[in-house]
Amino acid sequence: MIKKKREKSHKLMTHEAGMRRVPKNHPKYPILEQEYGKLSYGHKGEEALDYFLTFLPNDNYLILNSLRLEDPKGRYFQIDSLLLAPTHCIILDSKFMSGKLEFDESANQLLRHLPGSADVEKLGDPISQISRQRHQLSLWLEKNGFPPMPIASLIVLTHNNAALIKTTPSITRKVTFHTNLPNRLKEIDENIPKRNILLSNKDLYKLSRTLIKKHTPDHFQLLNHYNVAFNELITGVICVKCSYAPMLRGRGVWGCLRCSAYSKDAHIEAIRDYKLLIGETISNKELRSYLKLPSASITSKYLVSMGLKFEGSFKNRRYFL
Ligand SMILES: [Zn+2]
């Protein structure tokens, strides 16, 4: 049963907004684009897990996706999918990577062998990473008053064009393909002593609720990170059809000067970008200049139509996005 849905990280969402709002000729655009590619690739891989999680051998699992928790030492750790049962839990980590992959246990490296050459690309150390996650989760359980539980983990290769080479029994215990995930979970399930119930049904749900409550979304400040100034961004409403900005407002709708598309609510996306990149509050004046609206009273109409909460009066009023 899915208790927490998969969601995009704040970092990925800010990069999506950055791809719309940082001009393509900005010197930082290429690294922004590269990082965006990595993040959206990773998210795709996590989503590929979800389909196979619908084939679980054991309906009793509570499934929590995209968790980000703080361990007792103030370090954050992220779990792609966490499966909870009364006897144990399982951490799944998705790796969306194609090609000939080798887990080199002596060097603690995941390697990709490049086609037609002897070269390898180093792709980090997912095995140490997931064992750190197990350790941090056990610390978290203890801190939050839950009994110590067996924590199993699996690295799941979610790309259809991934192949494992030079495997050892130790690697096949730790790594699987997404297509084989239900079988591997069944094996783990069968190896856990059934009599060893550590959590009653009530406590199991309490654990799930506590995990969701303690989930702390990341917060990524894209402009700071890439050293992009606010006034370098593309402002205004972006055309949903052709990406031209700004769309202009006339007779209550947004119109595109380039492709003649029109929209009633295209400003919503623009305001979402503002929240992701610039700030969580906005004044009438700031919104007016950002959306390139002709007057304070028209801007006010938009603010009212969105039903935003606000604080302050008159000129000092700030609306919460
Ligand atoms: Zn257009």
What's the SSE blueprint?
Blueprint: E1 2-4, H1 10-21, H2 29-52, E2 62-70, E3 76-84, E4 89-95, E5 99-104, E6 109-113, E7 120-122, H3 126-143, E8 151-157, E9 162-164, H4 169-174, E10 175-177, H5 181-191, H6 201-214, H7 222-226, E11 248-250, E12 253-255, E13 262-263, H8 266-277, E14 281-282, H9 284-291, H10 296-305, E15 310-311, E16 318-320
Parallel strand pairs: 1-2, 4-8, 5-9, 8-10
Antiparallel strand pairs: 2-3, 3-4, 5-6, 6-7, 11-12, 12-13, 14-16, 15-16
Helix pairs in contact: 1-2, 1-8, 9-10
The structure holds zinc ion (ZN).
Description:
The chain has helices at 10-21, 29-52, 126-143, 169-174, 181-191, 201-214, 222-226, 266-277, 284-291, 296-305; strands at residues 2-4, 62-70, 76-84, 89-95, 99-104, 109-113, 120-122, 151-157, 162-164, 175-177, 248-250, 253-255, 262-263, 281-282, 310-311, 318-320. With 321 residues, the protein is of the alpha/beta class. The protein folds into two domains: 2-214, no CATH class; 235-320, no CATH class. Strand 2 (62-70) and strand 3 form a beta hairpin. Helix 1 crosses helix 2 (29-52) and helix 1 (10-21) crosses helix 8 (266-277). Zinc ion (ZN) binds next to loops.
Distance between the termini: 33 Å
Arithmetic mean of pLDDT: 93
The largest sheet, given as strand count, sense and whether it forms a barrel, is:
6 strands, mixed
**Uncertain parts:** none
How many strand units? 16
Write down the domain tally: 2
Q: Oligomeric form of this entry?
A: single chain
